[in-house]
Every structure is written in C-alpha cells, then in structure tokens.
Amino acid sequence: MQADSLSFIFLNTVLANNFVLAMFLGLCPFLGVSGKLSTAIPMGLATLFVMLVSSVSAYGVNLLLVALDIEFLRLIAYIAIIASAVQLVEMSLKKYSPALFRSLGIFLPLITTNCAILGLALFQTFRDYNFAQSVTYALGAGTGFILAIALMAGLREKLVLSKLPTVTQGAALSLMLGGLLSLSFMGFAGLGGAH
Amino acid sequence: MSRRTDNRITWETFSEGLWKENPVFVMLLGMCPVLAVTNSAINALAMGLATTFVLVASGALVSLLRSFIPKQVRIATYIVIIATFVTMVDYVIQAISLDLYNALGAFIQLIVVNCIILGRAEAYASKHRPLKSIVNALGMGTGFTFALLCLGVVREVLGSGSLFGISLFGDHFQPWVVMVLPAGGFIVLGAWLLLFDWLKQRQALPQEEKAHAG
Amino acid sequence: MNTESAQVQQPSTPASHIIAVLTGIAMISGFLVVLTSQLTAPFIAENQRIAIEAAVTRVIPGSVSHKEFILSDDGLKPAEKGAEGQRIYAGYDASGKLLGVAAKAAAQGYGGMIYLLYGYDPACECIRGIKVLKMAETPGLGDKIIKDPDFQANFDRLDARLDPSHMALLHPIVTVKHGSKKEAWEVDAISGATISSKAVGKALNRSAQSLLPRLLPLIGELEVAGK
C-alpha cells in the first residue's frame, strides 16, 4: 500500500495511529465518558460527525488563509470554525432530527474542547492532505475514536464486577487500562508496511 | 460576595495549584499534552513553560477585561484571547529552537484546547484582580510543569537511558523503548496516580483511627 | 439551551456593547499576533538558515562553503527573495572546487511527511548523504531513519546515474526489504521501519528523477560560481 493512498490513511488512523491510543488526542472524553457502553457509543458517533464537518470546513478555511497569505491567523480561525461547526451541528440536528438530537445533544458542547477535533484540523494541514485525503483522515480518526472509547467502556463495565484494592479505584486504573489498550494497538504498527 | 472581593494574595493563592489542586494529578485536566510530549524531560519542561506563559498571560488579560466582557460571549472571548497567546508562543519557540519546535509539533498549538487554561480563565481570572490571577496562574503553571517533569524524567530515563539528553548508563544499557512510546505514557501516569492515591490513603488512615478512638 | 437561559436572565447587555467588546478583543489579538510574528520572523529565518547550513555541510562531505541557487525553467539564478523555482545548495571546498549539490526532498511517511535534504556528487554521479529535516515517525522505530548507522550507510554512495537520454535515472532508486540490498541504487530498509525507509527512498527517487536531468547541463555554471 502506498503511504498516501486513501485506504492506507484510513486504516492507519483507525488502528496504528489511533487518535486516542497513539496520539493522545481526545483523552478527556475517553477517560470521562467511557464508563458505560450506552453513553460511550453516542459520544463517539457525535465526535465522528463533528470531525467530518470541521475537517471539511478547516480545509476550506486553510485554502482561504493561504490565498490571502495570513497563515498566522490559522489557529484562531480553526478554533472559531470548530466552535461554530459544533453550534451548527447542534442546531441542525435539533431541527431536522430531534430523535438523534436527544441521544447526541448533551455531548455536543463537550466536543468543542475535545482536542482531537483541533488536532485533526491541524494535522491534516501539516500533512498537506488534499480534499479526499482530509475527509478520509477525519473518517478514520472518528472511527478510531469510537473503537477506542467502546473498547474502554466494555472493559470498564466488566471491571465494576471485580474486586479491586480501593487505592486503584479511580483514574489510575483507567490510565493503566488505556496503557494496555495502547500496547495492544501497537501490534498494528506494521500494518501496510509488509510486502 | 465578600470572598470574591478578598484581595489578599497569600501563599495559598500560589500553592493550591502545586499540590492540593494540581491540574494533572488531582484534577486530571489537560491530559493530551501531558502524555503526548513527555517522552523526554526537555520536551516536558518546554511544554510546561509554554503552558505556564499562556496561563499567566491569558489570566492577566481576562482578569483586566473581566468587567467589560459580556456574559453571553465570554467563552468565545476567552478562546480568542487564549488562541492569541498560543500563536505568540508558537512563534517564539520557533525563534528559540527549531529542534524543540519540531519535537513538540502540533502540540504547542493544541495548548488552545487545554482545558486547564479555559477552566482557570472561567473559574478564577474572571472573578479576581489581575495580580491575584497572575499569582494563581503561576502556581497552576508550576504545578503543571512539575507534573510534566515527573512523567518526562521517568519516561526518558527508562525509555532512552538518558536525562535531558545526557546519557546516564553507558552503551550496555538496553533502553525500555515502550516507555517513550504512547503506551508508556499511559502506564507511567497511571503509576504516578496510584502512588499519590496510596500516599493519600496512608495519610488518611491514622486520622480515621484517631477519629474512631475519639 | 444554556445560552438561551443565559440570555433570558441577562437582557441588560445590548448587542452594540457585545459587538464593541468582540471587535476590541479581535483588534488586541490581531495586534499581538502580528507584532509577534514580525518580531520573531528574523530569528526564525536565522534558525532555519543555520539548520540548512549544518545539513548542507553534512550531506556534501568536505564542503566548507555553500551558495544558494534557484533552479527554474530559465536556468540558474542566485537565490533571492520571491524567486520562483527549486532551491538548491552548491557546496565548495576551500579552493572553490564544486563538491556537490544539495536539494530538498519529501514524501509521506508513517506518522506524517518526512522532509529531508540530500547531497548529490556530480563526480561519482551518486548521492553522498541525507539529513532528515523534519518528520513525525514513531520514536524507537521509524525515527531510526535519522541515526541508524546501517541505514545512513546506504547513502554513502547511492547510485544516481542518468540513462543515456539524460531524461531520467538509469536505475530508479528503490527501497528493498531489510538485508536484501544487492545493487548500488537500492536502499536497504530498516527492519521494523519499512514504511519510513520506503518513504525516504521514494522522496529521493522522485526528487532526483525531476532535478538531475535539469541540473546536470548546468553543473558548469555552478563550478564557475565557486571560483
């Protein structure tokens, strides 16, 4: 597989360079909302959705910034469009799909401060991705986020049933679990590199 | 209301960020940079200093402008202020050292979404005088830098066998590479948290026993 | 929903005030950003120049001075601001003899783009060294492309001869599986870092294929420029 083909970008972002487990982006929701599968998956879906919207907008805005030669405003512009993208998604969901809004709505404001979104926008710019590559990258990042948060929630649901020393019941345990997940995802590191 | 207008700056103003409300070990905020850039001590130190600068500068500006900023748009305003200082730090680090800039990568710009900074602007700087906000932000920044260094030192010593780039063990040392890899970040932070929780529990135990005895 | 209730609670702030404050903040922030970018620009340029200087010295072994040129369809020009074309660096020894030419190459690696500088020696028609300028490869695996001595040895004399038509390389530069390098134009991959190694080979091949056919007819000009 070529390193800039779409399928490579997708698989690489989902598994080998998973946003949460390898790049440490989006840790707050990963640690905070991964208690139960029933909340983790809607959170993941909402994040995927916002990632797609902001990736497309960031691509457009960057073209504009480069054309006007004002790249030093990139960060401010990105954070502004992400905040507005979240607002826009929230409003349109409310209007056109109230059912979906009820299940995703409470997570949307949280996503604005999810560094995975800004990270996605910045990385796709730094890597000079074209439009199709950017969208694939966003899709892969979102899917990888859902995968990571769902795995974590599954593990934590099982852990509730087991007896643990009191000192380990807290964030420390979640982090250790995250470490083990990350370690197992390293197994994907050769993906696409084999002949 | 009387507490809000309490203008005295005490040791407490500074020190709460160091230990009692340490942003990383106690409040678990700003985890992305904590794990991502702490694969060496020098990166950890640079990231800590950059974050401290943004914390202090945005805290000062938010505090100065606190009576002008309308409630409805306060978050947007804070984010613009923070993004401004982050962009400045980004340029300054590029001017200081390209190697450092390349090592930290996009994580300098990701300081914008570090929840500590927005959190302190909202919870502290918007309610206190500039000087007090600055002192508090300095404390928080120091606490954050301290936490980053805790991780960076452990990960660099175990993972690369060096400290601040200086080799410690000589050539026969087989580095524990997993420590500088992402998985090591999670595990080292988890271990630090375990240690602190355990210490806290041990401190609490004698007090409980006393309470029972009394 | 929160914003709605906040607006209901505080109808006192007029829109004009909000706009005034936001404009004010935007002006302050714009001023600070522009000021910083202007103030730091010379330092950043200087840092980049030092980094390039060090890299050129490394990829053209023995060179003590260099000159920057812009290669475009109109031929060679001394590097100036705003000139269009590809930037190349000619390295000379103390007596002004041309030792080699360095140019930048880039390719998509494992964790992002890999940018590198490579030195071409017209005397042996080969690549004499590479220096990674910027990359985001995995620590402990992909980042071996920077330091791994066996990998660096690939570029001691990497064959980059042109074919008889002088339009392309005689043998394209390819990265081969670790331990299977047989020919002088092959790059032996690092085991466990195949993608990163391949990216380096690809970057070199792509850049050399397009640069060398245009550069070789002009080598004479570069030699004269050193005197």
Structure description:
The complex is a heterotrimer of chains A (195), B (214) and C (227). Chain A has 195 residues and is mostly helical. Chain A is 72% helix and 0% strand. Chain A has one domain. Chain B has one domain. Chain B has a two-stranded antiparallel ribbon. In chain C, strands 2-1-3-4-5-6-7 form a 7-stranded antiparallel β-sheet. In chain C, strands 8-9 form a two-stranded parallel ribbon. At the A-B interface, helix 2, helix 4, helix 7 and helix 9 of A face helix 2, helix 4 and helix 8 of B.
In the predicted model, the low-confidence regions of chain C spanning at least 5 consecutive residues are 1-10
Overall form of chain C:
globular
Compressed to H and E, one letter per element, the order of chain C equals: HHEEEEEEHHEEEHH
Give the termini distance of chain C in whole angstroms: 74 Å
What count of domains describes the coordinates of chain C? 1
Mean pLDDT of chain C: 81
How would you sum up the global shape of chain B? flat
Characteristics:
heterotrimer, A: 195 residues, mainly alpha, 9 helices, 0% strand, globular, C: 227 residues, alpha+beta, 6 helices, 41% helix, disordered N terminus
In short:
The complex is a heterotrimer of chains A (195), B (214) and C (227). Chain B is mainly α and 214 residues long.
Topology diagram in text:
The complex is a heterotrimer of chains A (195), B (214) and C (227).
Chain A: H1 6-16, H2 27-32, H3 37-68, H4 74-96, H5 98-104, H6 108-112, H7 115-126, H8 131-159, H9 171-185
Helix pairs in contact in A: 1-8, 3-4, 3-7, 3-8, 4-5, 4-7, 8-9
Chain B: H1 11-15, H2 31-36, H3 41-64, H4 74-96, H5 98-104, H6 115-123, H7 130-160, E1 162-163, E2 166-167, H8 182-213
Antiparallel strand pairs in B: 1-2
Chain C: H1 2-9, H2 15-59, E1 65-72, E2 75-78, E3 86-92, E4 98-108, E5 113-121, E6 126-134, H3 144-147, H4 149-153, E7 158-159, E8 174-176, E9 186-188, H5 194-215, H6 219-226
Parallel strand pairs in C: 8-9
Antiparallel strand pairs in C: 1-2, 1-3, 3-4, 4-5, 5-6, 6-7
